[in-house]
Every structure is written in C-alpha cells, then in structure tokens.
Amino acid sequence: MKPVIIALTLILLVNCYSIAQKDPNTENINVFTGGLFMSKGKWEVKLYNNLYTQIEPQLNSTDRRSSFNTSFLQFTLGSNHNVNYGFDFLYKSNIINDVASSTPFKVFHFMHENIRNNIMGEEFDTHFRHGLTHFGPRIRTKPFKNKRFTFQQAVYIPTGNLDEGWIVNSDLFYEHVIDSRYMIFGNIGAWYPLSGEIFPYARVFAGTLLAKRFGPFIMLNLPYEMGAGTKLFITRKIELEFMYTYWLPIESIVDNKIPTSINFGLRITNFNNF
Q: Are 265 and 46 in contact (CB under 8 A)?
C-alpha cells in the first residue's frame, strides 16, 4: 500500500506544479486511452505486459507466491470507415507455488518444468509453464454520435497451450480532455473465458502530460484495485508505459491472498501523439 500512496502524493505535487506552469498553447492530448480511434493510414503496434503476482499465506508452512504474466502483442490499423481493425497475440508465463521471497520476474525465465523445493525439511513442487496461448481479431468502432465513446470487441482463439480455452473481451471506452491538458479516461468491460468465469471491471484513469514527454496518471479499478503509473515518450511516436497496482484486502475478492500487479509496455505509432 505504501508505494501507491507515495506515488499518488508525488503525482498530486507534480500536477500542482504543472498548473502553475501551464502553457496556454499546449496542444490537446489523447495519449492515455487504450481505445484511441485512428483515421485511415494510421497504425499502432503495442507490446504490453501484465504481471499479476500474489502471496498466499500458509497456516503450517512457508508462504507461497504465484505469478502470472500475459504479454499482448497488438497491431491496430485505422480506416476511412467507422472501424479500426486489430489483431492480437497473447503469450503467457506462469509460476505456481513458489516461495514467497522469490521475485515475480522469474516468469521471464520462460521455463516449462516442475522443480522440487526443500525448505527446512518441507518439500513442495513449483510449476513453471509458458507458451503462446491465444491469437485473434479485434475491432474498434464509434457506436454513438458522441465521439468520446469507443467500443472494442476481441475474440481470442486458443492454441492449445496451457489448457487455455476461447476468450471474449469487450470494452466500452470514454475519454474527456479538460483544458487541453488533463485527461479523464475510463472503460467498463468484461474478460470472458468461455470455459471459466466472467471477469468484469470498471476502470477510471486521470492524468496529465508534462513537458510533452512525461505523463503521470492514477488508476482506480472499482471496487478492489488502485494504482499509479506513467507514460514516457521517447519520441512523439515511441512510448513507454509503467503502472503498479495494489489490490485492496476485500476478502470476497482476494480471500486471504496479497495480490499486486506490475504493468509495462512499448507502443509505436506512425503518427505524433502530442
């Protein structure tokens, strides 16, 4: 919890400073939304990693950590119609039942094996799995006359790796720029594995772009997750993104686990983002 509070405080201070230093000629920004709608001839390529990790307290043994990373490689193309076309690849790497003191970044070792552990005479297995699990099409469209809304629909076809099945993902995005400098962005949606339980979410982001290079933001995923992050533009067409989130200890959602997530990505476009 402390890292999130510190991050939110820093972002608040930076935003207060930016108000005092505001440039009246600042261009409109549209860099925080994952549902950015593009016109004909524009495209983006995005590699995004969502690393979810949780510590599972044990009553009579050492605590355990399980980590699950999903890497999204996404291609999106604009058109002269009211539709953007995309295609995604999903690569997953999981570690289940590791020791709690281990780093979650071990998921990037990309191992496929079981390892026997012996901690102070206690034996248990840690399971490592990885592989390309899904691919599939995605579309974005403007369903209403109000241009602030974008709808996105994706269907992910399983490859057979990691016993993953079909997934349907739906999102409705909303974006609003305030005073040509601040942006509120939200989306409601559902991640729906056809062989599992539906996972609904409702996220709200608020951020600003400083010095046309640095975009801090905060995030709430109602009612159980909060976080902070930033977008860093290497150029107007190359963007890095980082976000850390903390899951609130709501027993009905997380049980007795202690989950967090670390998100980072790279986005490249053929158009200027600010």
A: yes
Ordered by start, the domain boundaries in the chain are 2-269
Please state which CATH number belongs to domain 2-269.
2.40.128
Nearest Cα to Cα of residue 243 among 52, 54, 86, 104: 52
Q: Where are the alpha helices (DSSP H) in the chain?
A: 2-20, 251-254
Phi, psi of 164 (to 5 degrees): -90, 145
Q: Is residue 10 scored above 70 in pLDDT?
A: no
Looking at residue 3, what is its pLDDT? Answer: 43
Q: What is the CB neighbour count within 10 angstroms for residue 184?
A: 17
Model confidence at 168, in pLDDT bands (50, 70, 90)? very high
Q: Is residue 80 very low, low, confident or very high in pLDDT (cuts 50, 70, 90)?
A: confident
Provide the 3-class DSSP secondary structure of residue 64. Answer: strand
Q: Which residues contact 3 (CB under 8 A, 6 or more apart)?
A: 244, 246
pLDDT given for residue 7 in this prediction: 42
The pLDDT, as a whole number, for residue 143 is 85
Grouping H, G, I as helix, E, B as strand and the rest as coil, residue 167 is: strand
Confidence of residue 94 (pLDDT cuts 50, 70, 90): very high
User: Rounded distance, CA 192 to CA 97, Å?
Assistant: 25
Element (H, E) at 117: strand 113-119
For 55, the token pair is 């510590």
Q: Which are the contacts of 71, defined by CB distance < 8 A and separation ≥ 6?
A: 47, 48, 49, 90, 91, 92, 93
